[in-house]
Design brief:
Chain lengths: 411, 411
């Protein structure tokens, strides 16, 4: 099955927004073995949309549309498709109810325009929208599959995964379900990880194992196709185990976990409190932890000790220690962790010091970072990083590594 | 002139990367009055690329290509265009020199493959690449304009602005230069801003005035076309003045300014030092300031006082004040600002307290935030926000508003 994705919207052609929907849809179609041959973007113009559809009909078996399902006069994707397919739009009771429900929940008044959104292509299958008003649609005509999706990514993405993918699997005659499991790594580069699990990557077929890289983690996505969710889960388990046998030390979480959510979860579970003394990160570590709801029972607070005199005055780091070992040292990171733990009466103390850049600091090259972790039993560990980014990627990575080492200690 | 942008690259069709190049090129073309009618994405496949070009030739006067100019066998944009246009590739001495220079500068060894990148379409105009090896090309054939650009955005963007735009203006017979000036706003919504400057927006032509919205600011981009840079700058000045007369109170900076860079600049200029006590933002405000290089002479540090007892113990906020007014109050924000200024011996103190969400806090609804600013002369101001985002957009906006109010005080 060859697919084409047509995004409809003049704002895309004006460069006001980026076509991230095509990226998302392409990645999900690749997972179920559908090849995407073209992306097309066309404006809110019925003639040009008609021509684009005409071209796609000749070169694709599946056309996925995004955008143009809204309530305004500019939204004309389904109207244009109705003309081309020589069919008509009809009111869909479920869709109308769902739109009315949406307005009730949002406590807003429904306008006549919104009723337009309850119109669907005759004989189409409704793709439910749990995050907005416009229902999606799927239909087959003359051997071609058409999928219509709303433009906003937070509506399109769950609709595509939960409604369109099962529809497509059915259309492909596959009695299949797709189950994905994401393993999240830190402290290891994508190339090194691929190298270490290469044997598994090479013989992958079902489940597939795809390495992905994001800003804050390296990811392996395991995707199994099976006749039932249970079966798919059972197919993924041994592959996950095999991967864990090779590289478990770098896995900090799964699926929707982030470094901060995992650290917050483990802190809550262990009923331990934490405080931090931050130099180069200047509050970034604590702020990341505080992004997690319900952290207040674990997070006491901390100090930002940006320059040397503040470290001495506010935390009581001995000036002699700084003179002997320097501000960027294992000894300073340890002292920051121990002192902030004492000062805030927390179970765990974290210390962060380093040279973020752009210039070397206290004789240490840009990217040198020391992290200290003082535990409730009195033990203190320190970790050294040699980062190679710019000022702000170094600061961010230092904060993320501190979360990663914290997770390892809490496990 | 009708334009089409064709991005070449299988990784786009696999959903591994997003076509941000089309967004960038579209926005720049809109500025010089060229309408983009279609974006197309096609894989590294010569047959399908040929077909895509054939379609574009029928519906566009200008085709802009991105990607496929690299050294590998998969890179075949210029080779395919050569076949279609019945022309040939020739070695370009300047391009080869520039590639050799690049390898010298990068201290890397040049391979035979890289010489392929010095081949350009016969009779084409070379678009210089100052950030990579592949030169771009521009040529006219049978009344159509073809522009070829490398895929990596950090190479494509400067090449398009500095090389392709002047070429296009020349091709359009315009002896013009384009100059843009960006005004950055905070504390005002895009809709309200547009409403207040509507008179200017409506009669805009040269300079054009385009409202843009980004995560952290509302932006007006003024773009003038003129015969010289001087003339363009002179055309922008009165329009900027007129805008400032209407909404100057919301303008925090221009061009590349961010809230944190502007705050850091004003702190340095005034030689004032700063400290902050952060509750809901938990270090985010200080971390934003610390993202600016050279901030260490201004930024003393601060405390993260996440829960009530820490506010009392670490900063000496009177328990009676918290009991009387609550943690989320003008009084608490003021006390945080004053106390942290005293404790750190800084000229300015900032206090941040509020209910980030997801649940109300201390009887205050989600999104209620108080910001306190204590100045060197003993004056203290407090500001209330009623934010409507989720936990982390509220935390981020609170931090950004604190920077914005700080900028206003420093001005």
């Amino acid at each position: 099955m060859r697919a084409e994705i047509i995004a409809v919207g003049s704002e895309l052609l004006l460069g006001q927004i980026t076509n991230t929907n095509a990226t998302f849809i392409s990645a999900r179609l690749a997972e179920i073995g559908i090849d995407v041959y073209y992306h097309t973007v066309v404006g809110d113009n019925p003639d040009r949309l008609k021509k684009a559809i005409g071209i796609a009909q000749k070169r694709a078996d599946l056309i996925v549309f995004s955008g143009g399902l809204g309530p305004t006069k500019d939204d004309l994707t389904k109207e244009t498709i109705a003309v081309i397919l020589e069919t008509y739009l009809e009111n869909n009771v479920d869709a109308l109810n769902s739109i009315e429900d949406y307005f009730l929940r949002a406590n807003r008044i429904m306008t006549e325009n919104n009723k337009k959104q309850a119109l669907i292509l005759a004989d189409s299958f409704v793709l439910k929208n749990h995050h907005g008003m416009a229902p999606g649609m799927a239909l087959e005509k003359n051997g071609l599959q058409y999928i219509l999706l709303p433009g906003p990514p937070h509506e399109l993405e769950p609709m595509f995964e939960k409604e369109a993918i099962p529809y497509l699997l059915g259309a492909l005659g596959k009695q299949e379900v797709i189950v994905s499991r994401v393993l999240k790594f830190y402290g290891v580069g994508e190339a090194e990880l691929e190298d270490r699990v290469q044997g598994i990557l090479l013989r992958q077929s079902n489940p597939t194992v795809a390495p992905l890289s994001s800003q804050d983690a390296v990811i392996l996505r395991l995707t199994a196709k099976a006749n039932s969710t249970d079966e798919a889960v059972k197919m993924i388990a041994p592959v996950e185990k095999e991967i864990r046998n090779l590289v478990d030390e770098f896995i900090f979480g799964t699926d929707d976990d982030t470094l901060s959510s995992k650290a917050a979860e483990l802190l809550k579970k262990s009923q331990l409190t934490i405080a931090a003394a931050e130099s180069l990160t200047a509050g970034l570590f604590l702020s990341e932890l505080a992004s997690e709801p319900g952290i207040s029972s674990s997070l006491k607070g901390g100090v930002v000790v940006y320059n040397e005199e503040v470290k001495v005055e506010q935390l009581g780091i001995p000036q002699s220690l700084l003179d002997e070992y320097g501000v960027i040292s294992s000894e300073c990171a340890e002292a920051l962790a121990v002192k902030v733990k004492q000062k805030f009466g927390s179970d765990i103390g974290i210390g962060l010091t380093g040279a973020a850049g752009p210039s070397p600091h206290d004789g240490k090259p840009v990217g040198t970072v020391w992290i200290g972790i003082a535990l409730q039993n009195g033990e203190v560990s320190t970790f050294k990083l040699d980062l190679s980014g710019n000022r702000n990627t170094n600061r961010r990575r230092a904060s993320q590594y501190a979360l990663y080492y914290l997770i390892k200690e809490l496990k």
